[in-house]
Design goal:
about 350 residues, mainly alpha, ADP-ribosylglycohydrolase fold, 18 helices, globular
């Protein structure tokens, strides 16, 4: 069960002028899982069309504030949401079973099903496709994974791990790293995925978005010497790696460097520039986390503005925006988002079913 003493919390202020600000506290707190899952999809749908565009071109097409409305019936998401749902359903299938022996086959099955699905037509990442091919052939996942990859595919799908009630922090960390490791074997992908899930968890438990940089730095400092062998087995045995602690320590060091850049960016006035210039383009895991945090923290009181800012980026806009949405949705629930959006997003039925199960 949860260890309340292990998770620093604060009272998250509700967005000024939002539906959350006028709703009952109980109603708001009961919709945090749904808010995070739908927030992930909303950010993905806003950021998908802007990926690979320059900021100047995005502003020319959508105006200076970036995209702020869902387009399409339904608004289409990318592989980010599809794989987030794959992780979510694996966790749902596992129920109260929280061991690698149970979870690895469930994650494997969901990832392979995604790879083979005709709906996997959203320009998926080559790392995920390559690893899923090995998983489909029943290879050990430590051999199927792409050992040198720390792409953001490791952590853009991990946010459901932070939403499942009942996980203690050790279980959360193990599952977050396991789901990353099945496709992305680089230690930074593992560490960034744990931090991403942890961020969702502490927001769900009441931390304010503005507290995230300090909370994540503290978590990274405390975890940097821990290799989770019960979850990762011998994944650390890679070329030029002498021992498991050195292996995982590299990942935590790179995440701390990304948090340094985040702190420096937040210490400066917001000049309206591309967030990627401050914290990275988001193609790799630690940069996707840091740039999403920059957008979420800077615009914590205006969740839709945060999504638009995340989508108005020159880098991996959909992954940055989906993480931004998952963070602020976990803090404020469904009331953070325009009510009409729920009926216009792809996979709304699946998002709603998982959200209801965990709210």
């Amino acid at each position: 069960m949860d260890d309340p003493a292990a998770v620093p919390t604060a009272s998250a202020a509700l967005p000024t002028g939002s539906a959350a600000a006028t709703g009952s506290a109980a109603a708001i707190r009961s919709a945090l899982a749904s808010g995070s899952l739908f927030g992930l999809a909303y950010g993905d749908a806003l950021g998908g069309p802007t990926e690979f565009l320059s900021v100047a071109e995005i502003r020319r097409r959508y105006g200076p504030g970036g995209p702020r409305d869902l387009v399409g019936q339904p608004a289409r998401v990318t592989d980010d949401t599809q794989l987030g749902l794959a992780v979510g359903w694996a966790l749902h299938d596992a129920g109260q079973a929280t061991t690698p022996e149970v979870l690895e086959p469930l994650l494997r099955r969901r990832f392979v099903a995604w790879a083979r699905s005709p709906e996997n037509d959203r320009a998926p990442g080559m790392t995920c496709l390559r690893a899923c091919a090995g998983l489909a052939e029943e290879m050990r996942w430590q051999e199927a994974t792409v050992a040198g990859s720390k792409g953001c595919g490791a952590n853009m799908r991990v946010t459901p791990v932070g939403l499942v009630p009942g996980y203690d922090l050790e279980t959360l960390a193990g599952i977050a790293q396991l789901q990353a490791g099945l496709t992305h074997g680089h230690p930074t992908g593992l560490a960034a995925s744990e931090l991403t899930a942890y961020a969702v968890r502490v927001l769900r438990d009441g931390a304010a978005p503005t507290d995230l940089p300090d909370l994540l730095r503290d978590r990274a400092e405390r975890q940097r010497g821990i290799y989770r062998a019960e979850w990762l087995d011998d994944l650390w045995r890679q070329p030029d790696t002498d021992d498991p602690v050195t292996f995982i320590g590299q990942g935590w060091a790179e995440c701390l460097t990304a948090l340094d850049r985040l702190d420096a960016a937040l210490a400066r006035p917001d000049d309206g520039a591309d967030p990627c210039e401050a914290t990275g383009a988001g193609w790799v895991a630690e940069e996707a986390l840091a740039t999403a945090l920059l957008c979420a923290v800077r615009h914590a009181d205006e969740p839709v503005t945060a999504l638009a800012r995340a989508a108005t980026t020159s880098g991996d806009s959909d992954s940055i925006a989906c993480l931004t949405g998952a963070f602020l949705g976990a803090a404020y629930g469904m009331a953070a988002w325009p009510a009409g959006w729920r009926d216009h997003i792809e996979y709304a039925d699946q998002l709603g079913t998982l959200g209801a199960a965990w709210d």
